[in-house]
Amino acid sequence: MSFLIEILKAYSESKQIRFLIIGEGTWFDRIDKFINEGHSPNVLLQKRVSPLEYRELLIASDMGLIFLNPKFTIPNFPSRLTSCLEIGLPVIACTDTIIDIGDIVEEAGCGFKVISGDLQRFKTVINNIIPSPGSLKLQSANARALFEKEHTTAKSYSVIIQGKD
C-alpha cells in the first residue's frame, strides 16, 4: 500500500481525479494519517460500507483500482475485481510481476496492468484515460463482457465443481 500513498501524493493537487478508498485493512491507519495531515484533499477514506452502498459507489465511479501486496505472490482473483467487472467498471490492477489479473484485464480490453511501484506507468495510464472518455465506454463494455464470459456463478460452478474450463 505504500504505492497507493505514492499515487495519492502524485495526484494530491489534481482537480480532475478523486480517490475513494474503502476498507479497513492493515494500511488504513497510515492512509488515514496521511489524509488527515492535509496531503490529499481529493481523497475520501471509508472504513466500511454496506454491500448495497458499495455497489452504488462502484456504479458512480469511472475506474476501479485494485492493489495487491507485491509480497504475496500466491495467485488470486480478488472479489472486488469481480464486482468491478460485473457492473462494467474498467480497472487498473497494481500487482506484482507474477499475479496475472493485470494481464487478464489488459487482454480483455477492460483495464490496465501496473507493476506495483511503477509510478510512471500509473501516470501514463491515467494521462491516457483522462482525455479519452470514449475509451472508458469501450473498456466498460469489455469489462461486462469478461464478467459474462468468465465470472458468472454458473461459470464458477462449472470450473470448481465440474472441473470444466
Largest sheet: 3 strands, parallel
Major β-sheet strand ordering: 3-4-5
Looking at how many chains there are and whether they match, the oligomeric state comes to single chain
- The chain-level structural class is alpha/beta
Shape descriptor reads globular
- Radius of gyration, taken over Cα atoms and rounded to an integer in Å: 16 Å
Can you give the mean pLDDT?
A: 89
Q: Show unreliable segments.
A: none
Q: What's the count of strands? A: 5
How far apart, in Å, are the first and last alpha carbons?
A: 33 Å
Under CATH, the topology of the domain at 49-160 is which? Rossmann fold
Measured as a percent range, the helix fraction is: 40-55%
Compressed to H and E, one letter per element, the order equals HEHEHEHEHEHHH
CATH level-two architecture of the domain at 49-160: 3-Layer(aba) Sandwich
In the CATH scheme, the class of the domain at 49-160 would be: Alpha Beta
Strand content: 5-15%
Question: Helical region count?
Answer: 8
CATH homology superfamily of the domain at 49-160: Glycogen Phosphorylase B
Give your account of this protein's structure.
There is one protein chain. By secondary structure, the chain is an alpha/beta fold. It has a domain of 112 residues: Glycogen Phosphorylase B (Rossmann fold), CATH 3.40.50.2000. It is 48% helix and 13% strand. The chain has eight helices and five strands, in the order αβαβαβαβαβααα. The protein has a three-stranded parallel beta sheet, with helices on both faces. A two-stranded parallel sheet has the order 1-2. β4, α5 and β5 form a beta-alpha-beta unit. The radius of gyration is 16 Å and the shape is globular. It starts with a helix and ends in a 5-residue tail after the last helix. The mean pLDDT is 89.
